Amino acid sequence: MRKEDLETVIGLEVHVELSTESKAFCRCSTAFGAEPNTQVCPVCLGLPGALPVLNKRVLEYAIKTGLALNCSIASQSKFDRKNYFYPDLPKAYQISQFDQPIAYDGYVDITVDGQARRIGVKRVHMEEDAGKLIHTGDDIATATSSLVDLNRAGVPLIEIVTEPDIRSPEEARLYLTKLKTIIQYLGVSDCKMEEGSLRCDANLSVRPRGSSKLGTKSEIKNMNSFRAVFRGLSFEEERQKEAFLAGEEIVQETRHWDESRGITVGMRSKEEAQDYRYFPDPDLPPLAIDPTWVEDIRADLPELPDVRVARFIKEYGLPDYDAEVLTTSQRVADFYDDCVRLHADPKAVSNWIMSEVLRLLNAEGKELEETPLTPEHVTKVLKLMDEGVISGRIAKDVFEETFHTGRDPEEIVKERGLVQISDEDELGRIVAEVLEANPNVVEDYRNGKDKALGYLIGQVMKATRGKANPQMVNRLFKEKL
Amino acid sequence: MELWDLTVHELSRLLATGEVSAVEVTQAALERAQQVEPAVRAFVTSTADQAVVEANTVDAARARGEQVGPLAGIPMALKDNICTRGVRTTCCSRLLEKFAPSYDATVVRRLQEAGAILMGKTNMDEFAMGSSTENSAFFPTHNPWDLERVPGGSSGGSAAAVAAGEAVFSLGSDTGGSIRQPAAFCSVVGLKPSYGRVSRFGVTAFASSLDQVGPFTKDVTDCALVLNAIAGKDELDPTSVVDTPPDYRQFLGKDIKGLRIGLPREYFAEGIDDEVKEVIMKAVGVLEGLGAVVEETSLPHTEYAPSVYYILAPAEASSNMGRLDGVRYGRRVEAPDVDTLYNRTRSQGFGAEVRRRLMIGTYALSAGNYEVFYQKAQQVRTLIVRDFEQAFTQYDVLLTPTSPTTPFKIGEKIDDPLQMYLSDICTIPVNLAGIPGLSLPCGFSQGLPVGMQLLAKPFAESTLLQVAYAFEQNTDYHKQRPQVTVGGESNA
Questions:
Q1: Does 1.10.10.410 match the CATH number of domain A424-480?
Q2: ipTM of the assembly?
């Protein structure tokens, strides 16, 4: 058997921090980055006698996510306690959902190498986050003491668990990208992995291709970026395949992704795994989900990425690629929609956004909403080009200034005298001057060196500081030569 | 009659007419406490200084002609598992010996708004686990009726404080009988409201699905008055119910003619002291004389209640008390690593009975045991609930002894947990069913108090008060006071 005969099976557990204003079971703020232990109260500190009260927005967001992931929504749900001792867990139990998740049996569609793949979503459940430990010293092993920050304790999370349907690290990456896009469209989380508002653990196993039995899995933790997920899973996939082919036993264990060393390291085997002693939380009455409310939430769902892609293709005649790129971010897609409303050529708008807008955003590391750019800016630039007022090259310069300053492109063109010269007499005079000044080049051209023409045109552009109408200059040269 | 001996409604009248001041009433209670406390030991923390300040505030408000609360100037005591801001709340555990909460329980807030004056925090079995108050980490409380005997538990301090005249009323908590049994032992009125009637917010949880806070009072009228002050929805307790409770005073004095009372035979069976039965049956005769229709009935699943209770309550407790880990508050026993810290803190911080129950509860929830113990117990709990539902289709009230015996001696059962657990056989099913239960003084056996327990369907506290009041009006057990013997001298 060779590596190619082995199949990788991956399931992902994604924790998404919900962007509610207050915590899941108390009124403390969820704002990121506050001084330690300033966003706490008896409830999230786990003081004796304190009781949790469910933030209804958490339930709404969880249902919204469930619907967007094509899940069924439970009519009866409940919260359970997951009991374990850890200094960042003030009550010594986490309020979570065990056997009645709020949403179940959904899916996410992804495109892998042009092929559609459906990844099953097993369940979506609600839970609360724990606090954070800050170790004094370089790492947990050498720390002499640890401090506890409970600002994050009680912040609402949803956990989204896939079926073991993912077949490669690349599919995992595509699934995560898609999931993040959907969640951002819903507005239920900002999905910032660097702030921990999106976290991903993975289960990975290998098996001979064609086998329907799952192999022994390892659980990989601490992958803190999409890139880390890809790298971590790629490493683990290789490690398990090699072990499998060498006839070594693969043990069920939790493995830690070490970003700097680029390897996964075994932590503890499942034999010593904790018994969480789940039981229904007697402090929180069971949830009876009103189906009318669910339908209201469904009706309020935004246009989701898949639907939007289809619409862009159908309504604007865009190629699949353009539609995918433009819809990755809801803001960009909205921006595109707005531009098209102002400009008759959807493909020209798409080209400009994909080449210019996304390039500048990438270069600056910014989100669209962090720039002063408006749809009018884009369409005005396109219009200036269409009407021959400015050339494509000038347009890029003008747009870049607009991107940075938010100034009106027409104004910039006017102020800097960038209006294209399309006056045949004036250009004819300049062309004549260039011809006269470059007899050798003219000679070259006449001897069949086509490149010589480019040089001559360049000279005209130089003389006009790029404002000459390039088509007209081209025609004039051809006439005179 | 001495001021400390009066009831809430009697004192309220005197305070309203200006015959006495809140300071005088408070001083009287403090002096009484000074006198009897060395013998009774009901309190673990006194708030005497603060009490006088608060009493002055009440008097000043009244002097200015301001509207004061319905319990203004009335001295009260609170069980030490009810959080009081800035006043240590120990649950009578070494682990929380120095713990002063940063917030008030909802019941405390409501009683303060009603104007009641806090005299102190009362002794209890550690974390409310026990039936005699002997499991307090600090000292046992003595029954004012016989100082060699227990006051019952776990709210023994609260019961004894009212019986001995150290507070006019008090609050306890009841998970399996912890208000009713000590009320019976100390011959005071004790009410465990329906689950959800009174907020649990700020009351250190023992078993969340069973716990309920309620009053100890000298008579039924006072019980209605205190219940008025503490009952009702609390936004901070999702298990508190939404509907607005009635003014419970309106049910006092209502005729009980034709009212149907059931005597469940399982509560008069083996294990119930014959003399206790005799006293109860005499009380039943009084109610019959008032026109109540009394019949024998059956609650067939009663015998399973203790087994169900001793799985569910410890299971919930094992989770509720995980937070007492020495990390954020309470006592910490230092250790080189965190697991050892947990171990040392909890094994040195908790007493034997608490450790026993936490182990039982942890076991009952563990993988492989959950279905056999916890889940099965929940199923049987449903059967017990149905027994009561069935009975209440035929009866307005069920009547039973509160406790199978009169108060036992200090030390008598402490080394025999099973015997101790049986002390609650009449009260445990009531918590499992979530229904209200009231214990009422109904006589004496060899000079020791006997209490009868009245039960009604959920949220029918009104019916309990109606029947209890009718009984009280036709008997004088509630007027009898213990002779507290201090230093060999009897002190009425």
A1: yes
A2: 0.96
